[in-house]
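Researcher: Sequence recovery benchmark, item below. Answer with residues only.
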């Protein structure tokens, strides 16, 4: 199993990407999202707008991923929302509230990301980016997701060979 990570500067880009990969057969169970509450609240608005306009910016887009999720305060970042199998799987339902040492520690200890990637993604979220992670079963699928992320404006895209799914 491979997981593809990417940072998006704008909710519209993230929703556009989600729409494409969901049309290609990825489900919400394959996708995780992490970002500041204020940024994801704005993303909710873009999800509604795109759906109402019939533009198909994702079957639920970010809105579908974070519906009903309460934000959690993290040191040095502020209120954060995290949703998807990546978050639930590694924390066993405890949620982001159990992330005491900040996101770098979470990314390293629970996801197996190296220090450089962990730091880069924490800084990206702190700067207001949206981190999306897509779980794939094959190298070809991971490459297709990587290409789609890049095409939709993601930066710092990285394929993790194997993500841990338990704490």
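Model:
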């Amino acid at each position: 199993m491979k997981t593809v990570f990417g940072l998006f500067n704008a909710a519209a880009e993230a929703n556009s990407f989600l729409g494409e990969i969901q049309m290609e057969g990825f489900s919400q169970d394959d996708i995780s999202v992490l970002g500041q509450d204020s940024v994801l609240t704005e993303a909710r608005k873009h999800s509604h707008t795109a759906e109402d306009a019939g533009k198909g910016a994702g079957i639920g887009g970010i809105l579908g991923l974070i519906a009903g999720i309460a934000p959690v305060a993290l040191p040095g970042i502020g209120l954060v929302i995290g949703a998807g199998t990546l978050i639930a799987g590694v924390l066993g339902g405890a949620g982001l509230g159990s992330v005491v040492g900040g996101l770098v520690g979470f990314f390293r200890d629970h996801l197996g990301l190296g220090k450089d990637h962990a730091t880069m993604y924490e800084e990206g979220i702190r700067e207001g980016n949206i981190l999306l992670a897509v779980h794939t079963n094959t190298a070809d699928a991971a490459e297709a997701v990587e290409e789609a992320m890049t095409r939709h404006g993601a930066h710092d895209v990285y394929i993790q060979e194997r993500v841990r799914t338990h704490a």
